[in-house]
């Protein structure tokens, strides 16, 4: 497989990994409806191709991994129904990524805020550039995480730390994220070849055995109703989305 460039996603197979790059650098790789569809396509490809052992996700450019949802596109959504359609669509992508039967890795090459952190939380392992800016800042816009990322964070982090990050909406240093074990390791700068070297210890063994461990985790999540909890999170965010506090926060942001 050579490199493929969709309009807002780039992907290529490097070694035994599918390397997927969010490719909207002009808006800090913000997620829009088109990106949702193309992400789903790339994740599906990783799951179906037996020659692919893992999916690696990163962002285009030097500034951002993902700045969350594209408010330039989503600011037109005002009602519960409109918001829920968008939120549920992307939540399904996060479920697809989290429940991918193969390991997934996120290389946070720059800012990851709001929905960008939700997307990172859906991956199995995360690495981040030392100076990356991180934060679940949705509460600052009078909403919750809306793609299911809050539920994922509570699965992957100590609940007290997760609640602090979600409720305070503050920015988090990469050092703190490493200490909290949300980030596996920090890096200054890496090439794609070096990224493959960092991923190799996780995938070098028999893929059937590696995938069996991922299946154990997926069974746990299914038995605890994680997909249903993520959908409830979507609903709660959609309720808050149409409230004046959120609509006013979005207007202030767009006016900057």
TrEMBL record:
Gene3D superfamilies: 2-enoyl-CoA Hydratase, Chain A, domain 1
Annotated InterPro entries: ClpP/crotonase-like_dom_sf, Enoyl-CoA_hydra/iso
Any one of the GO CC terms: cytosol
Organism: Pradoshia eiseniae
Record field: transmembrane: none
SUPFAM superfamilies: ClpP/crotonase
Keyword Acetylation: no
GO biological process: fatty acid beta-oxidation
Lyase recorded as keyword: yes
Protein's name in the database: Enoyl-CoA hydratase
Keywords: Lyase
GO molecular function: lyase activity
